[in-house]
Design a protein that fits this description.
The structure holds two protein chains of two kinds.
Chain A lengths: L24 H5 L15 E7 L5 E7 L1 H5 L3 E6 L9 E2 L6 E2 L5 E2 L5 E7 L2 H8 L3 E6 L6 H5 L29 E9 L2 H7 L2 E9 L11 E7 L2 E6 L4 H11 L7 E4 L16 H11 L3 E4 L2 H5 L6 E10 L5 E13 L5 H11 L8 E10 L13 H19 L3 H8 L20 H11 L10 E12 L5 E8 L4 E5 L8 H13 L6 E3 L18 H28 L7 E3 L2 E4 L2 E4 H9 L5 E8 L14 E13 L6 E11 L6 H20 L5 E2 L2 E2 L18 E7 L16 H16 L11 H16 L1
Parallel strand pairs in A: 1-14, 12-13, 16-17, 20-21, 27-30
Antiparallel strand pairs in A: 1-7, 2-6, 2-8, 3-7, 4-5, 9-17, 10-15, 11-12, 11-14, 15-16, 18-26, 19-20, 19-25, 22-23, 23-24, 26-27, 28-29
Chain B lengths: L1 E7 L2 E7 L5 H8 L18 E4 L2 E4 L12 E3 L1 H4 L5 H10 L9 H13 L6 H7 L11 H10 L11
Parallel strand pairs in B: 1-5
Antiparallel strand pairs in B: 1-2, 3-4, 3-5
Helix pairs in contact in B: 3-6
The chains are: A alpha+beta, B alpha+beta.
Amino acid sequence: MSTAETAAPTAPADRIGRSGARKDAGPKIRGRAEFAGDIDVPRMVHGKVLRAELPHAGIKSIDTSAAERMPGVVAVLIGPELTGFDPYWGHAIKDRPILAIDRVRFRGEPVAAVAAEDEAIAEAALREIVVDYDELPVLGTIADATADDAPLVHEGELRPGLFHGLGELPAREGNVCYRYRLDAGSVELAEAEGELTVEGEYEFPAVYQYAMETHTVIADFGDGEITLWASCQHPFLVRAEIADLFNLPIGRVRVIVPYLGGGFGSKSYTKMEPITAALSWKAGRPVRIQNSVEESMVTTRRHGMRCRMRTTADRDGKLRARSVRLWLDTGAYADNGPRVCATAGDAAPGPYRWDAVHVDASCVYTNTSPAGSYRAFGAAHLQWIGELQVDEIARRAEIDPLEIRRRNLLRPGEPARPDGSGKPLDADLVGDVEKAAAAIGWGEPKGDWVGRGLAVGLLAAGAHPVSNASVRMEADGSVEVNVGTTEMGQGARTVMAQIAAQELAIDVDGVTVQGADTRFTPYDRSTGASRSTTLAGLAVQRAAADLRERLLETAADAWGIERAELEVADGVVRGAGREAGYAELIAQRFGFVGGELVGQGEVRPEQGSGSYAEGPVFWEICIAAAEVGVDPETGRVGVERMATIADVGKAINPLLVERQDEGAVLQGVGNALFEEMVFEDGVLMNDTLLDYRVPRIEDMPTQMTGIIVENADGPGPYGAKGCGEGAQAATPAAIATALADAGVPMYELPFTPERVWRRIKNLKEDDRG
Amino acid sequence: MNQVRIAVNGTPRELVVPANELLLDTLRERLGLTGAKRSCDVQVCGTCTVLVDGQPVSSCTYLACDADGREVLTIEGFAEQAEFAEFERAFDERAALQCGFCTPGFVLTLKALRDAGELRSREDVIRGLDGNVCRCTGYKSIVEAAEMLVGEPAAPRGER
């Protein structure tokens, strides 16, 4: 994408690159920002969901009669009632019924839904529903599901969903619902020639995103029309999927998105919208369903993974070949598993120059809760493993970890995928990792049980490059940006306002940015994959530039002056000795007080279809350096120094960039040191925040340094590219390499005190043996 | 059903509530005060924090009946007080919020700490905010904002 057609305004570039205040700070600090759960719709009733108690079972019967008789109960809905249409959904694979039909495939799967006058009644009614189950064998792990004689979680052919976006779906192989392969060169040959080989088996845990606002949806299913107020990141994809599911034209589904209380991928694509819409249809009234944390934990999560990796190099540390086999546990329904699988496959080689690479990634159905997107998916899974192996090669070759990276890292313009496909590398990785290393005192003396580590990775970012925006100027010169980006904390509304203000040479205060209402807001594919500033931001830049042209034309016509002689600056159009404010020009254009000017901006694939294979839009850089201390007596790991790189091309709002990475670091610390969803035979054992620990204030690294790199090498406005995810993949990886440097190489995340202590004990025993 | 008298943000309220009604539901559903949020339901996350007689409590596990005869301050009420401007400025300046879901809980906890004279240092901040979870910020910005608020209570207790 290029910004060439949008001539920059002549005013100084002072609205971007500045850490102005967040547009949403006031309402959020005052508790007035509206989230889905704060909205009351007239005639609204409350929905609750009865969830399966067993991880895998046939449903013999469901008796809802007692629940239906309860005063205050408005409707009870069960799967067998979903007739007359195709009740299956799923953006990647259409494998999921709105409510269980004949069978439940995970513990927590919705079996029935109740709408009642208040939540307490709805909850009481759930307890009156009697389900008779027929227990089936449970495929609780990847090993269970990939065994030769494993029963199938899903029978029959897999049907592609509307947005799987990964080319032809291969036929299902047993419980493997998607497979991604990446091959370049002859691994056999390179491995035969290489002198150093590192090989290992690794485990990555299922993790809960914990957006503090749980999934919340209000649905109003009217006459051939559905309105949703939803805590969703991708309103336009939800709209299309709901329209497809209920056989409605896209325009008859309306999705309104208030502020989101965090997303991190957990609110990407469709989640609780289908069941809420169906319940509203049955109830004949608007229904709100608000998950509990326990319910959101089984609504979506990060994929657990098993991985075998082998890295081969020459004795001088020249990397030669990498071979990777991995299995992702996507749970009972695919959710975003196929794309996570492809992204993990792309992240497996790491950003190095290889003679040969072989990656084989499988996405596996099991009888556990469905897994989907979580910040930096794929990269978070693979980077710590690949980087541990690079460091082990360095150790055996007696090269400094920074030096082995200098020698082997890809340079800008080199193919980032080893097979040469897609977007070449668009960042200076060597420069970046040197900065990160310097920030944690690389090379300084250190004590026993202290380690320093580096991590470098790439994340395929941007998703599909389709974004539209419009910018409207009212008669008084105030400006509204209409863009589909969801504000979920990242600061999108602030950044969009800055971009519009910059193009129109006005104060950021004069710009309003609202949440999406798909009836009025121009189409934007999604809010995820770090795409908003880059793609939606580019659409806003183009829309604002288009509006600027309208202003310049208006002045040129009014004054009988050539357009080329005019420019905008500080809220006026001027040229040829004349000057007029925007409000004055709008009044002149319409001849009266009133009217408006609208600019449109569109971003679409510049060539090809914008498919995954042709992409990504840009490579998000995942770079961190860590210093950790280990207590050998307790196994406790402390993160002392942490540095991350935000290689953003251009920081529209530098403070918000830093803040994004700080958040990513803490989520990465959780992923590295203690976060883990523990399943036993398909049953989640730690399903509350009492048992599932998320990082608290005391878990902050002692020192956190966020470094912003601005090389204007991104495809977004002013050379910007996205950020905020890379640090989450890089943080666990840097902690892993630092821990290995301290003498404790680990093979299983999270690095809990118990695991670290056992590993230290085993290493000591190995030494003695 | 129980009849309770609660002073909510300085306004006396007489309410009839079931014995098992949570203060969070009373505030959100009956009084339309949605600044306190529901999240973990088990007193871990602090996003439902309100002040009862000046003490921070998790309203998700606090019965409305137990607030009988007490004063409840929510973020909506605090936002009307002169002292709030300082808190708002600190959080705004340090961009100490992202999604904003947890922010009212942090602000009210900090107010209670300062009123109690327990906001004197960075160590106080770390100790005092251990019961509030923020999933977005990584806490650094919140610590920076809180450090701007370190100091003596704006007025001695009982005079507000």
